[in-house]
Amino acid sequence: MAHHAIPAWFEIATIVALVGVLLADVFIISRRPHEPSTKESAAWVGFYALLAALFGTFLAFSSGADRASEFFAGWLTEYSLSVDNLFVFVIIMARFAVPKKYQQEVLMVGIIMSLVLRAAFIFAGVAILNAFTGIFYLFGAFLIYTAIHQLFRSEGDDEESESKLTKFLSKRIAYTENYEGMKIRTNVAGKRTFTPIIVVFITLALTDVMFAFDSIPAIFGITTDGFIVLTANIFALMGLRQLYFLLGSLIENLRFLEYGISAILAFIGFKLVAHAMHVNELPFINGGHPVEWAPDISTETSLIFIVVCLVVSAGASLLITKKD
User: Fold this and answer.
1) Integer distance in angstroms from the first to the last C-alpha of the chain?
2) pLDDT, tens digit (0-9, with 9 covering 90-100), for 140-178
3) Mutual orientation of helices 299-323 and 65-95 as an angle, nearest 10°?
4) Residues 211/85, Cβ–Cβ less than 8 Å
5) Strands (E), the chain
């Protein structure tokens, strides 16, 4: 199937539809705050995954198989990185003792903040890549470093980082001990003060910024189309809230998932460096000319590698957990 430009009407309609779905999700949560059951969470995760599959399929027919492959590879990459982020979300919720019935709303606010921050990173990244292709070298090196760091990262490291951030915020923001729903401010002895929810929101926002430094360079290794990058991120984050409740305590049993994610990050980092060599403009590398012998890794190869890494790492985790 040929590779065609994505029609402007399709891009606009897609963004409007996705914003509509997110607003409907916010409305449903605000009307009935509760802790969703496993069945409810699974149904929503499946619904969002189906939406992503339908979008990718329609993209294949309207703009070509290459575009669809880029979307699916990008979506799976961002989704796997988002699942890894859930480990930190679990720590944050436990650290601040967020009531179960309000966790859905807190996560939804965190996800919306993440979408806004990532959109800013995406537009900035596209502008930088168009102006200076040498940034591919930097992105690639950073992802390879992140992959190595991920291999040696432990849950204790996440808790220590989050604890330092919590102490930093606690010294600078005065807040009460008790939650009052989703209220950010309350009255105590006639004085206006913050509730703990403000610190939770700030912690989630800062955490989202750190996550963006991994996820955005990773998807740029698959595609530099801003629309594909943005939609892949939106679809990856849309079902994250329900996935948090679906996995729950099971998330700690995905012990090999980090190895799969590390392999994906290292692979995409290598692909970025190879691509940078193909479009090389740096005068101190091959005299400023493209490096012809650098490997050319297709999107289809990337998609297969990502799927294999996720299936093997998740499957091995579940198998070992079952034996234990």
Assistant:
1) 47
2) 898 898 888 877 766 555 566 666 766 777 777 777 778
3) 40
4) yes
5) 185-188, 191-194
Cα three-residue angle 299-305-310, rounded to 5 degrees: 125
Give the Cα separation of 100 and 93 in Å (integer).
9
Whether 232 contacts 71, CB under 8 Å = yes
d(CA 12, CA 189) in angstroms, rounded, equals 50
Are 102 and 35 in contact, with CB atoms under 8 Å apart?
A: no
Asked whether the predicted pLDDT for residue 230 surpasses 60, the reply is yes
Instruction: Tell whether pTM > 0.85.
Output: no
DSSP at 223: -
Residue 205 CB coordination number (10 Å): 15
Cα(139)–Cα(218) distance, integer angstroms: 8
Q: Tokens at residue 318, please? A: 């579940």
Contact yes or no for 91/244 (Cβ under 8 A): no
Residue 8, burial from CB neighbour count under 10 angstroms (0-12, 13-18, 19+): exposed
